[in-house]
Amino acid sequence: MPLWGGIEAGGTKFVCAIAGDDGELLAETGFPTSTPEHTIGRAIEFFQQQQSEPPAAIGISSFGPVDLRPTSPTFGYITTTPKPGWANVEVVGRIRRAFDIPVGFDTDVNGAALGEYRWGAAQGLDTFVYLTIGTGLGGGGLVNGKLMHGLIHPEMGHIRIPHDLDQDPFAGSCPFHGDCLEGLAAGPALEARWGQRAETLPLDHPVWELEANYLALGLVNLICILSPQRIILGGGVMQQAHLFPLIRDRVQQLLNDYLKTPTILEHLDEYIVPPGLGDRAGVKGAIALAQQSTGFLR
Ligand code: ADP
Ligand code: ZN
Which ligand is nearest to the CA of 186? Predict the structure, then answer.
């Protein structure tokens, strides 16, 4: 049986895993993201230590922005990230030189979306969005059965949403845009606005109503543009499961009965959902990227 390798390359930590065809993880390790040299080196060591043979392919789902154009001289690089030491860093080439096997590469959120499509909450769908609300806020997904790429790749976290400065005077934390969706609603924005990390804020704190409002504003834009059949919300901030009903109610209000489909009018609890793979969406997504890279899976 061929084994597949996956690297979830996050800005905070890397997770590497080996899995069989069914995506079940057979070995897994995680370590903090330090320098590119050291971090990618540790990933290579992990796969070297697993078996005598390298995996059939390795999939990498990476924080970004990344260069996904196969014809580009910097294909497989992390490009303009503000993360110190990681701008213009080659990722795919380093792995390919170490193992000489196919390497699949995509954004962290497209990877997670592919994992959810294969084994999680998006099975059987052809158009859906996976959004993470964590250190950053980003989205990926499939449209008509294909991962979204286009010009670069979607940057769903950097959309602009209404920001009522009387209600919320916080200027926003995005280094590029201030109060884009990520600048208002990702984890670091919550920490900067309230002076403590989101996970320490109590349930009755005004943070959650405001957060649900911003996320719902983002979601109605995505719903109106992409017509997704489902929206999956992952990432650290969404560990606050009580956000789901708040977001669904606000989406309902904002859409105001305009989209006359039972999915939105009656089944919003099956429409805006947590990842079916839980916190394994990212690493299993990387495995799915490996399988896709050899044509084993479309
Ligand atoms: P990353 O995006 O770096 O991969 P996470 O998805 O865990 O990692 O996101 C980290 C962010 O999510 C931090 O800003 C943190 O404060 C926030 N966060 C993590 N866990 C929780 C939680 N249980 N409740 C609310 N916020 C959380
Ligand atoms: Zn932004």
Answer: 1
Ligand 1 center to 215 CA (angstroms): 15
Query: Which CATH number fits the domain 121-274, given the four candidates 3.40.50.1100, 3.40.630.10, 3.30.420.40, 3.20.20.10?
Result: 3.30.420.40
- Predicted confidence pLDDT, tens digits, the chain (298 residues): 789 999 999 999 999 999 999 999 999 999 999 999 999 999 999 999 987 788 999 999 999 899 999 999 999 999 988 889 999 999 999 999 999 999 999 999 999 999 999 999 999 999 999 999 999 999 999 999 999 999 989 999 999 999 999 999 999 999 999 999 999 999 999 999 999 999 999 999 999 999 999 999 999 999 999 999 999 999 999 999 999 999 999 999 999 999 999 999 899 999 999 999 999 999 999 999 999 999 988 6
How many angstroms does the Cα of residue 178 sit away from the middle of ligand 2? 6
Enclosing H/E stretch for 187? helix 187-194
Phi-psi region of 51 (alpha: psi -120 to 50; beta: other; left: phi over 0): beta
Ligand 1 mutation target, pool 61, 81, 133, 237, most atoms within 8 A of CB: 237
Contact criterion met (CB below 8 Å) for 57 and 294: yes
Instruction: Identify the residue whose tokens are 């060591």.
Output: 45
**Residue 135 beta carbon below 6 angstroms from any ligand 1 atom:** yes
